[in-house]
Amino acid sequence: QVQLVESGGGLVQPGGSLRLSCAASTIIFNTMGWYRQAPGKQRELVASIAYGGASYYADSVKGRFTISRDIAKNTVYLQMNSLKPEDTAVYYCWSPGPLWGQGTQVTVSS
């Protein structure tokens, strides 16, 4: 069974940066991405990247977040810059299937 393991969450001040990583236990010949879920809200797609490299971003994170992928390491990254309090959520690694990681908490607060 394929596993997705996230790392890199934490507490950061507004305007700060974090990088999330998601390592897959095997090669995934498919899109990978990141969802997030804030308390009391639905889970939403933040960014995704196809196996060939095409990417998608939610409007709320365009220009601030960058998704990338290292095929050789079976790893996808989410670089998050200019973080805002409204980015606070549990971030989940995802691939269609669906496959889900266990989630990592990101808290943006002063």
Notes on the protein architecture:
With 110 residues, this protein is mainly β. It has strands at residues 4-7, 10-12, 18-24, 32-37, 44-49, 55-57, 65-70, 75-80, 89-95, 99-100, 104-108. Strands 2, 4, 5, 6, 9, 10 and 11 form a 7-stranded mixed β-sheet that branches. A 4-stranded antiparallel β-sheet has the order 1-3-8-7, with no helix packed on it.
Give a quick set of tags describing it.
11 strands, mainly beta, 0% helix, 4-stranded antiparallel beta sheet, 7-stranded mixed beta sheet, 110 residues, 50% strand
How is the secondary structure organized here?
Blueprint (H helix, E strand, L loop, with lengths): L3 E4 L2 E3 L5 E7 L7 E6 L6 E6 L5 E3 L7 E6 L4 E6 L8 E7 L3 E2 L3 E5 L2
Parallel strand pairs: 2-11
Antiparallel strand pairs: 1-3, 3-8, 4-5, 4-9, 5-6, 7-8, 9-10, 9-11
Give a quick rundown of the structure.
With 110 residues, this protein is mainly beta. It is 0% helix and 50% strand.
End-to-end Cα distance = 40 Å
Describe the biggest sheet? Answer: 7 strands, mixed
Count helical runs.
0
Question: What are the secondary-structure elements, in order, as H or E?
Answer: EEEEEEEEEEE
Number of beta-strand segments: 11
State the helicity in percent bands: under 10%
Taking pLDDT < 50 over at least 5 consecutive residues as the criterion, the unreliable ranges are none
- Structural class per helix/strand content? mainly beta
Overall, the morphology is globular
Percent of residues in beta strands: over 45%
Radius of gyration: 13 Å
Return the average pLDDT rounded to an integer: 96
